[in-house]
Specification:
Layout: E1 18-23, H1 30-34, E2 40-44, H2 54-67, E3 74-78, H3 87-98, E4 104-107, H4 113-130, E5 137-142, H5 145-149, H6 151-155, E6 161-166, H7 168-174, H8 195-208, E7 211-214, H9 223-236, E8 240-243, H10 249-255, H11 260-278, E9 283-286, E10 289-292, H12 293-303
Parallel strand pairs: 1-2, 1-8, 2-3, 3-4, 4-5, 5-6, 6-7, 7-8
Antiparallel strand pairs: 9-10
Length: 309
């Protein structure tokens, strides 16, 4: 499969309920991040690192990827924007140094399919040169008005892509939004301020068969606000959310996992439908509610989100 082709989404869905951000310069946080319950941890070479230390941070990230036990946690690195002088060096040095100990690269500020294609081609060359046994995966941040406008073509740009991530922070700057430090509108606003952008990202992700990950919530002490923000995005169909602090991980894991009640209901619906189907019926009822083929698909989607033991 080549770049610009539609990804194969037939495999079991990935779990990205929580994605923990960890500055690549903060050695003290590596062990804690590796031992966390996050589905994915990314070592940040971009916004969390002062420009003067971004090249030095690469080596620290490689050290963390190679020398800590990450268990089943997905190991990722957020590189710098491809329009900067650091991006190509980030990718080459991280992949060359970590090799199979790197699972995913997160690409920020993606505005077009061309951005994803550039990273895909560079990775293909590095992997061939190193003889790597596995392919590095990609997640990309939609955090610019151009990225929102081109979300669908971005989502379809590479078979490496696993997820689109909605980024409210830089998008606020890009659209000249009047928001506070938590990306909430200053003053009153009639409705969900980010609904359009979230739906653009979510729709593009679903078209491409990849995951949709919601934006960070900067006020990590406001756990109730984080839970509400996560629940709103989950209701739309998002698969997970960024965590900028370990305190947010368990909340995201809970919100983006089906409840016991949802699991039980899904199983009952599937069982009842299969029994009806065997009798030649195209629908049935469970607890007085219609269950047809659409409900079975919904139930199967819920069951696919159950974390592995």
């Amino acid at each position: 499969m080549t770049a610009n082709s539609t990804p194969d989404n037939s495999a079991k869905p990935l779990l990205r309920r929580s994605e923990l951000a960890t500055p690549a310069t903060n050695d003290r946080m590596f062990a804690k991040a590796a031992a966390s319950n996050a589905d994915l941890v990314f070592l940040d070479l971009e916004d969390a690192v002062a420009p003067a230390f971004r090249e030095e941070a690469r080596g620290k990230a490689v050290h963390a990827l190679n020398d800590y036990d990450w268990g089943s946690t997905v190991r990722a690195v957020r590189v710098n924007d491809i329009g900067t002088k650091w991006a190509y060096g980030d990718i080459i040095e991280i992949v060359t140094g970590a090799r199979e100990n790197l699972d995913t690269i997160i690409v920020p500020k993606v505005t077009s399919a061309r951005d994803v294609w550039w990273v895909d081609v560079l990775l293909t060359q590095i992997e061939a040169n190193l003889g790597l046994s596995k392919q590095v995966r990609l997640e990309v941040l939609i955090e610019d008005v151009a990225g929102v406008a081109h979300a669908e073509e971005i989502a379809l740009a590479s078979p490496r892509l696993d997820a689109l991530i909605f980024g409210a922070g830089d998008l606020s700057v890009s659209q000249n939004a009047r928001v506070d430090t938590n990306f909430k509108p200053r003053g009153g606003y009639p409705g969900d301020f980010w609904h359009y952008a979230r739906m653009q990202v979510l729709t593009a992700a679903r078209i491409a068969g990849v995951l949709a990950i919601d934006a960070p919530y900067p006020d990590f002490k406001d756990t109730d606000g984080y839970a509400e923000d996560a629940s709103n995005a989950a209701a739309l169909g998002f698969n997970g959310k960024w965590a900028i602090h370990p305190a947010q991980i368990d909340i995201a894991n809970r919100v983006y996992s089906p409840t016991e009640e949802e699991i039980a209901r899904a199983r009952r619906n599937i069982e009842a439908y299969r029994e009806a189907e065997a009798r030649g019926l195209g629908a049935t009822s469970v607890d007085g509610q219609l269950v047809d083929a659409a409900h079975v698909k919904l139930a199967e989607a819920i069951l696919s989100q159950i974390p592995a033991e």
